[in-house]
Amino acid sequence: MNDSTVSFSQALRRRLLRNKGALFGMVLIGLAVLVAVFGYFLAPDPSPNANRIILEIGGNKPGYTQEFLLLRKNPEPAPVGFFERLLNGVPDRADYIPVTWWRYQGDSLLVDKYVDEGLTERRSYVPEDLAGKSATVRQRFLLGTDKYGRDILSRLIIGTRVSLTVGLVTVLISLSIGIFLGALAGYFGGKTDAVVMWLINVLWSIPTLLLVFAITLLLGKGFWQVFIAVGLTLWVNVARLVRGQVLATRELSYVEAARALGYSHFRTLFRHILPNILGPILVIAASNFASAIVIEAGLSFLGVGVQPPQPSWGLMIKENYNFIITNNPVLALAPGFAIMLLVLAFHLLGNGLRDALDVRG
Length: 361
Prior knowledge:
The chain is an alpha+beta fold. It contains 14 helices and five strands. Strands 4-3-2-1-5 form a five-stranded antiparallel beta sheet, with no helix packed on it. Helix content is 59%, strand content 12%. β3 (108-116) and β4 (119-125) form a beta hairpin. It folds into two domains: 2-34 and 154-357, MetI-like (MetI-like fold), CATH 1.10.3720; 55-147, no CATH class. Pfam families: BPD_transp_1, OppC_N.
């Protein structure tokens, strides 16, 4: 039995690796996971939520470069360790003042603070005001800055964590509810099946976004509330699939043998039937992951999803979509392109799993 299991796993792995689309999807998902985990080490702006606001440089194009004077914060934030930075980032230890010119004059540092295009303001600072040995630092914004002067690339990187987390939590919730109710309906039939199918049909008739709105309003706006709301709407697909698979499987010989041996319904269902229908469940889990990312982005765009200043790709599109018709469309197109790539990756993986497991219909 172990040999056959190993050989099946090896055959599944080989078929997946031969599928170029699935392989491309797995590579993209793997990169997204690494970016999500180590985002605060990869982002040019490692401050919490990549929320370093510099209003003077808002709305600039990709490749924009600016020189900053670093002024010491008072009081200075406490140092953070590795795991604290991994989870929440590092608070800025200095204020970033955009400047166009500077020089030392006696004991003072004279600077021209950048206010707007063609407009500067002369200011003077003493060395004790500076946060480091160097008077200024030069920073390049590869994807430009949003209307608040925040680095788009940094918020894009940190936003990956939101999209993957909502997908993961949603899949866990939808699989837990869907497998349990679908398995009960398919195995026991009768009144149990009728009640579960009635509930499925009622929820199926309500538009997904409308149902998510209702649950979100009930639970309130917030990070985890969105995940729970999306998860509570996507279990219906799982339940219908599991019910159909269990109905087709419960009359097979190995199930009859389990009943003849006196095994309980619970053991027969969860130890013998469900492990043999995991293939279709994995496929629909990948599909639900992609759907959750799109729904979360839509909710954030409409203002009932992830709330500022936490970065979300949908929220980034909402904050910058006005720039699409002006001279800087990248601000809104970059998060939209990220959503498209991640959703495509999960769909390609789902198609690869379907082909590798030979799931039809």
